[in-house]
Design a protein that fits this description.
Helix content: 25-40%
Protein name: Heparinase
Strand content: 15-25%
Subcellular location: Cell envelope
InterPro entries: Chondroitin_lyas, Hepar_II_III_C
Largest sheet: 9 strands, antiparallel
Organism: Pseudorhizobium halotolerans
Structural class: alpha+beta
Pfam families: Hepar_II_III_C
Length: 562
Amino acid sequence: MIMQLADRRRLVAFGLREIGRRFYRRTAGLRLALTSSASGVPDRLIVAPTDLRAIDPFVAEEIAQGRFPLAGTSFDTEGYSPFEVEAPTEALAERLHSFAWLRHIRADRSAEACARARAITSSWMNNHGRRARGLAWRPHVAAERVIAWLSHSTIVLQGAEAGFYRRFMRGLTYQVRYLRRIVRGLPMDETRLRIRIALAMASVAMPTRNAFIRREGSRLDRELERQILPDGGHVSRNPRILLDLLLDLLPLRQTYINLGHDVPAKLIPTIDRMYPALRFFRHQDGDLALFNGATSTPASELMSVLRYDETAGQPFKSLPHMQYHRLSAEGATVIVDTGKPRSAELSRRSHAGCLAFEMSSGRHRFIVNCGAPKFASGNFRGLARSTAAHSTITINETSSSRLLRSPLCRSSILAGVNEVDVERWDDQHGGDWVRAVHDGYLKPFGYCHERSIGLSGKGNKIKGHERLLVPEEVKPPRAPVSAAARFHIHPAITMSREDRERVLLVAPDGEAWEFNAPGHAVEIEDDIFFADVSGMRASRQLVLHFSLPETSEIRWMLKRVE
């Protein structure tokens, strides 16, 4: 009852904060309309910052035909502006309003393509640019649109008449002022940081006073200090956010340098700190680990960021502030999540995957988490966030952390894992071990989950030991409950059963690992991989089913087949 009361208090406090933020944001448009005027609108842009994201000529060709292949689907406008017809999905509508698709027009850059981009932009200004409300003005959409308009202004403004140029500048200025007004009403998450990046970019790309440039740079510095941890990770604990932020921070840094402005004091040190954290999550196949909202990573975007990496060196063994551990030897890598969300506000994309791990070897990932779908319904997103979608143990098909699904809290994590104890050591044979215990199942079932994983010094053997413990101060549970240890296998890996306890995992290039669980039947079951580049994909998983308290310990092993 005490814990339930504490949960209610946290929920009420969180809800009140969110109500205050939403009221602040919703009144921002009204306050802006009362104070905004045509005065103070710059007459030109000074520079168009570089966009490091990948260009797809196919998308440019489709847009030329009136089709927008965005958010995992294709939207045929049938000759109309995309802002004059209803988009089929909310995700696609957000992608349209963000204008991130403008970068693909760079694959063409013909007068006709630029005129088409200009006409679509004009349509947006007519239909959505006069009042800051609705989906088009969601904070993350507006921030992305400002960055896109600045970065691809050469596309939109090529061959533009003076009248359109003035309208474009007036619309851009209005959006910048809107972001400036709503940023204080946002929680400390990546959207708030991206808005600070957009405002700093606008301050150097649009004519303004040096004092204003310094002020926006100082505000960006403070936000970087709040959100980028001392080990280079992001407070959300999502590896993919590091890449997304660097794709914006690197062009911003270069724009400051090219124009001769003083670079904000924290910007370059923060970028240098983020690179080792990004490399920490990079698997042997070059992709990023799938934890806490991470999804597929386009190889071209990752390489475009890593080419500017001047920090060099091997990845760290652990990120103590972001709360992850990495075991690596002779081409084999294991990454383990040993943390929990830092706050309810920062858990909106977090997963209930405490103690989950991923393993890669050679050029392939073998054991993964299901990852987050890029564009999918709320049901699939909820499944991807559950403990069962991670390579760890579940009890009674229940997640180790509880997700709130109310509209106000937007699927934040309220309760579950409160404490995680972690230990790291080397054994006498040169193996590297990490042991961690979490209490996410203590309240509902009376058990703590302890996981130990060790990688041999030769990188050819991985040992695992799972224990479900009953703390001394807790009354031992009497009723039996079911439990399962899941190991999600990457879709590229083929499996063949050797016997009841052993399964052979083979990569496309022939590298093979044998999974063995002595004394336990290893089941091969259907699965879904949410984070494939092409979208959701069928896959398989290895599952060890057992019952508590009858069986409270499981040992398993992965061994490379030479």
